[in-house]
Every structure is written in C-alpha cells, then in structure tokens.
Amino acid sequence: MDIEESVQKINEEIAAAARAAGRDPAEILLVAATKMNDAGRVQRAIRAGVPVCGENRVQEMLEKHRQNAYEGARLHFIGHLQKNKARQVVGLCELIHSVDSVELLREIDRCAQKKQCVQDVLLEINIGREDSKSGLLPEMLPDALEEAARLPAVRVRGLMAIPPVSRGVDSNRPFFSQMEKLFVDNARKKYDNIHMDFLSMGMSHDFQTAIACGANIVRIGTAIFGERRYPEKP
After folding, report:
1. Does the model's pTM come out above 0.70?
2. Spatial distance between the Cα atoms of 110 and 83, rounded to a whole number of angstroms
3. Most buried in the list 1, 124, 164, 184, measured by CB within 10 Å?
4. pLDDT on residue 167
C-alpha cells in the first residue's frame, strides 16, 4: 500500500474509532510521525491529507525544514527534547508534545521569551512508570502545572503519553484510561496559562483504543510510511 492509500485508510479507521466511541471524527487530529522519511515522502503524505507532521529528532527536523518538507502542514515536535536543543525547536513548532520535566519547561520559557513568542506544549507523563522512559510521574503533575502557570512564555495545552510496548491490541487500555482520568481531573482545575485541550496518545498499533479512552491527537508513523529501516550497527 502506498502513502496516499495509507493516509486514506488511517483517516477512515480514525473516523470509525471515533464513531464507535460516540465521538465526532472531526475531534481527532492526525499527526504523521515523519521520522526517517525524506522530504519527498513527507510531501506525499501532506498532499494525501495529513494536516500535521511530527518530528522526533531536532537535526532531522531542521534539515527537512530547510527543504520545505512541511509546506502545507503544521509542525509538531514529538520526540525527546534535550534542554540544550530547546532553542532550535521553540518558535518553529506549533506544539511540543514531549515536555518531560520542570527544568525543560523553564528552558522553553527562557527561549520563548528571547524570541518574543509563547510556546504551546504538552506535558509528557510516564504513565507506565518505566525506568527506560522519560516523563513526569502522575503524582508530579500538580507541581509541574503550578510551575507552568508562573511561566509567561509557556502555555500548557494538555498531556501526552507513550505507554509500555503493548502485548496486544487492547493491552494498553488501563494506561490510556489512567491518562484520561488525569486529563479530565486537571482540566477542572483553574491555572493561568493552562488549557487542557489536547490528550496526545496512541500510535499505529493502538490508536483505536486510545481514541476510545479520550485521545484527540494520535501519532501515526508506521501505518502511513511502513516499517522504518534503521541503519545496521557496525
């Protein structure tokens, strides 16, 4: 299946999952995870109807941006972001999904103030409490939101999570359900600069379950572009 057919199929599956959950398909934003796909392939996906591209690596994103790879779509950053690279992402990406610490929040705020902009972000939650993954633990979220509310150049727009590698199509439902509860509970609280608009979770293998649990951003790579081919290690 080529990229154009894959995008059409994914849009149909997103719509079906939304309707099955009693939701409007228009509520769900598709972010194409474009890591390791060149500018030509990214442009094919955009022409096929992808509204947002999500990049994982700063240098790859900057190179493709110079090549106008994202023309016709919005750009999000969805990968782990090191503090020393925040300045290269702030102001370039509409939304940073992966803010995993208060220290990174402060650095993004500092960079955004220098660029005289306000950067929209999502707070990444380590919902599976995995040592190998970054992200705030759920109990750390209130303090992070209170800190974000004091930062003038950062605007929190919601939460993001990457649950443990699933063992089946529905095995991550408990983690997605925990994320939905965190999202809803914190949406009821009133903070400055905090707007619980987006819950970003679900990828190629589990986005239907994520949508059933309240996700309104799904990050799809493999199901659009095929399996990534990583260079062999010498």
Report:
1. yes
2. 11
3. 124
4. 66
Cβ neighbours for 114, distance < 8 A, ≥ 6 positions apart: 87
Q: How many CB atoms lie under 10 A from the CB of residue 14?
A: 21
- DSSP state, residue 76: E
Please give the Cα distance from 232 to 73 (Å, whole number).
32
Q: CA dist 234 to 33, 35, 230, Å?
A: 27, 22, 12
Flag whether pLDDT at 168 surpasses 70: no
How many angstroms separate the CA atoms of 226 and 214, rounded? 26
What's the CA angle centered on 51, arms 99 and 16, to 5 degrees? Answer: 95
Q: Which domains does the chain have, with CATH numbers?
A: 3-225 (3.20.20.10)
Closest CA to 218 of 13, 8, 59: 13
CA R_g for the chain: 17
Kindly tell me the sign of the dihedral angle through the C-alpha atoms of 67, 63, 105, 31: positive
Beta-carbon contacts of 211 under 8 Å, excluding residues fewer than 6 positions away, are 14, 17, 18, 21, 23, 28, 202, 218
Query: Residue 171: what pLDDT?
Result: 85
Instruction: Return all residues near 91 (Cβ < 8 A) that are at least 6 apart.
Output: 111, 112, 115, 117, 119
Question: Tokens at residue 25, please?
Answer: 């398909």
Q: How far apart are CA 22 and CA 224, in angstroms?
A: 25
User: What are the two backbone dihedrals, phi and then psi, of residue 11, each rounded to the nearest 5 degrees?
Assistant: -60, -40
